[in-house]
Structure formats: C-alpha cells, structure tokens
C-alpha cells in the first residue's frame, strides 16, 4: 500500500463547521470532509479493495465511497492533517488479515479427569439411595 498514491486520490473539501467558535464559525470553512472512491482507486489491488469493501461496509455509501469528517480544530490545515491520519489508520487497520484459528485438541488427562469425576458423582448418588433389603 503506497500512502502517497492513496493520498493523491483523496478528495478534500472544506465546509463551514458547527459548534464553538463564535463569529469565526460563520465566516471560516474549517471543517474538512474527506471522500475516497474505493472502486476507482488505482493504488489498491483488487484483493485489498475486496477486503476493504467487506471490513468498511457500514462506513461506505452505496457508490462505495468512504466519507470522513473532521471539525476538531479551528484550523483547516490541522483538520486536514487529522482526517488524513485517521483515514490512513483506518485503512491500515482494515487491511490486516486475521490469522486462521487452529482448533486445539482436548488433552487426554482432561478427558480422564472428566470421566473420573462423572464416576465419582455417580457413586455419591448411589450411596444416597436406600439399600435393597432382599
């Protein structure tokens, strides 16, 4: 995964932010909206695209576009840096393929202990019964 190629494919748009900032909010577009078209990406292989499509399914639009927002800071530049870092971290996290789980065998000692315990409980229950007086 080449991060510089991916960053060049990003579409960043500055919009007016909501929240604290007073008059500044009304006149400055400090919120940054990042959109990444997964289908049209040239820097990702087909396998990576499929993996991202599966893992990021709840975050993708119907057109397979990932949209991230950032309005944490009053500075547009800082918001741009934050949203790009967040995007790259999300990609790296989503491209991790989990190791296949190998089922472990039950140890023979555990099987023996379970059978011994069953016999012991059975014997205790037998001793609770009234004896046969025939």
Largest sheet: 3 strands, antiparallel
Query: How many helices in DSSP terms?
Result: 5
Rounded mean pLDDT score: 88
Strand order of the largest sheet: 1-2-3
Classify the beta-strand content into a percent band.
Answer: 5-15%
Low-confidence stretches: none
Terminal Cα span: 84 Å
Radius of gyration: 30 Å
**Name of the level-1 CATH class of the domain at 3-94:** Alpha Beta
What does this structure look like?
This protein is of the alpha+beta class and 134 residues long. It has a domain at 3-94: Double Stranded RNA Binding Domain. It has five helices and three strands, in the order H-E-H-E-H-E-H-H. The chain has helices spanning 3-9, 23-27, 46-55, 76-94, 108-128, and strands at residues 11-15, 31-37, 65-70. It has a three-stranded antiparallel β-sheet with strand order 1-2-3, covered by helices on one side. It is elongated. The model has no long low-confidence stretch (mean pLDDT 88).
Gist?
By secondary structure, the chain is an alpha+beta fold.
């Amino acid at each position: 995964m080449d991060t510089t190629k991916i960053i060049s494919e990003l579409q960043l748009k500055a919009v007016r932010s909501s929240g604290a900032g007073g008059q500044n909010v009304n006149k400055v577009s400090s919120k940054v909206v990042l959109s990444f078209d997964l289908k049209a990406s040239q820097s990702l292989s087909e396998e990576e695209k499929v993996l991202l499509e599966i893992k990021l399914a709840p975050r993708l639009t119907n057109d397979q576009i990932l949209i991230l927002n950032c309005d944490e800071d009053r500075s547009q530049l800082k918001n741009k840096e934050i949203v790009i870092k967040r995007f790259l971290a999300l990609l790296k996290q989503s491209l991790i393929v989990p190791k296949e789980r190998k089922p472990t065998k039950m140890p023979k000692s555990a099987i023996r202990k379970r059978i011994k315990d069953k016999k012991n409980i059975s014997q205790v229950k037998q001793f609770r019964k009234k004896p046969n007086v025939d």
